[in-house]
């Protein structure tokens, strides 16, 4: 079993402050493309820079794009976010299409989320002064002094009639009224036949 998760940064799941309340704010602040002009592993990165980089910069005016050539080094994408997080990725031997996909992922994610070990599945900046909800939150405080076993508290809770039960009762009442109407019609027919006779 790997202990790699022990060395990850830990934190809580959270959204950036104000994101989506008034408008969408792209969390990617700056992206740096490091590549070699002659090395074979940088072929996909060079293709992206030649054909797609200008379109990417026009479509994302809020993102600063740096291009940094380095001799005899593998290509790397370094993304920096508004919360100070950095996402570093080695893209050696990647195709141009793969680079486009990873650039889009870097633009759309909030930070380097896979490198964050979650401490809890929920978190709030403003905890309740009443504490977390429990089954006893809105119960009568007299229950604290009750001696058990108690017949009153141990009996089944009588809930209100469910919607299905209400529909069944309405259907039965409708059937009864239809039956009564048929009986009335039959008695009227019998009365008419007896008058004619």
TrEMBL record:
Statement: the UniProt record of this protein carries the keyword Ribonucleoprotein: yes
Domain of life: Eukaryota
GO CC terms of this entry: mitochondrial large ribosomal subunit
Any one Gene Ontology molecular-function term assigned to this protein's record: structural constituent of ribosome
Gene3D superfamilies named among the record's database cross-references: Glutaredoxin
Domain named Ribosomal protein/NADH dehydrogenase: residues: 37-110
Keywords from the named record: Mitochondrion, Ribonucleoprotein, Ribosomal protein
Biological process terms in GO annotation: mitochondrial translation
Localization: Mitochondrion
Record family assignment: Belongs to the mitochondrion-specific ribosomal protein mL43 family.
Name this polypeptide is given: Large ribosomal subunit protein mL43
């Amino acid at each position: 079993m790997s202990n790699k998760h022990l060395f990850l940064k830990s934190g809580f799941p959270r959204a950036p402050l104000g994101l989506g309340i008034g408008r969408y704010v792209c969390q990617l602040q700056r992206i740096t493309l490091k590549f070699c002009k002659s090395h074979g592993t940088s072929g996909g990165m060079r293709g992206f820079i030649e054909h797609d980089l200008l379109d990417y910069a026009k479509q994302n005016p809020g993102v600063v794009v740096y291009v940094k050539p380095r001799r005899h080094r593998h290509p790397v994408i370094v993304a920096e976010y508004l919360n100070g997080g950095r996402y570093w990725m080695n893209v050696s031997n990647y195709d141009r299409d793969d680079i486009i996909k990873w650039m889009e992922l870097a633009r759309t994610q909030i930070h380097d989320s896979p490198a964050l070990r979650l401490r809890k599945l929920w978190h709030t900046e403003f905890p309740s002064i009443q504490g977390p909800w429990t089954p006893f939150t809105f119960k009568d405080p007299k229950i604290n002094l009750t001696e058990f076993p108690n017949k009153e508290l141990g009996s089944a809770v009588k809930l209100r009639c469910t919607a299905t039960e209400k529909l069944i009762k309405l259907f039965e009442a409708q059937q009864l009224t239809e039956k009564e109407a048929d009986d009335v019609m039959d008695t009227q027919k019998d009365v008419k036949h007896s008058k004619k006779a």
